[in-house]
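Researcher: We're teaching a course module on how sequence relates to structure. For the next exercise, students receive a sequence and then see the predicted structure as tokens, so they can try to spot secondary structure elements on their own. Here is the exercise chain.
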Amino acid sequence: MNHRLSATAPSFRESKRALHWLFFGGLLLVFLGSARLAQVDPGVLLDARARANFLRFFAGAFPPDLGREFLQFLIKPTLETIQISILGTAIAVAIGFPLALLGTATLAYRGVLHAREVAGAPSRRVVRFLPYAASRALLSAFRSIPEFVWAFMFVRAVGLGPFPGVLAIGIAYGGMIGKVYSEILEAVDPQPLEALQATGASRWQILAYGFLPQAYPNFVSYTLYRWECAIRASAVMGLVGAGGLGQQIEISMRMFDFHQMFTLVVILFGLVGAVDWLSARIRRRVYAR
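Model: And here is the predicted structure for the students to work with:
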């Protein structure tokens, strides 16, 4: 008996090791195949023509345009970029949070909140699964389309300006925020939820005093991260006329005015850095509670 167990254990470990090597071998083949199909060639960056083009671009960008008139002109696009990111993130939270509640399995149809109900009538689980599936499908649809494409469609619908950028960030980031929020809610510790249910708390009380307090710090952290991303995304969406600094960058590139473009990039870098600094301070306060 012991001889059989000792003979079986090494064979199991060997088969597990073989599966690991097989997995990494397959991953390496996929990586190499993808690099070939995508025509990835790092040597192109070191080519003499590429180096000359880089040097020509950076030489043409210095010194940056720091003229008083140009800097005063950039106040409005800079404020537009900040406003687009804030309003877009707010809309994204307004879309993503309710869909996250519907798209959280432990809230919708299984888990401690539905243990008694499912045991008494299994058909109710199927009924509660339908809103869950619909919300997950909607979140997938929102985030599967990049914000750049959303901005292009909204520019066609409502015209040029910052409003299409706000809508594009709200829709695209709403799908991302809702997906991550639902995963955060599903990862909460179930023991406090069971304790609340044992005291006779209602489902909404368990949500308010069990789920949300545990998920709140992660909610804040991810929302602030998405706000940082919205600052960068607003520059990309400006290329299709969605306002902000991005639209000015596109105009400067089209006019081959690299002095102004370098100034715009520096301002955008400063905005991202300021938002990152502010987000870090807010995160420290939230996690210190």
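Model: If you want an answer key for the exercise: The CA atoms of residues 96 and 256 lie 40 Å apart. The mean pLDDT is 81.
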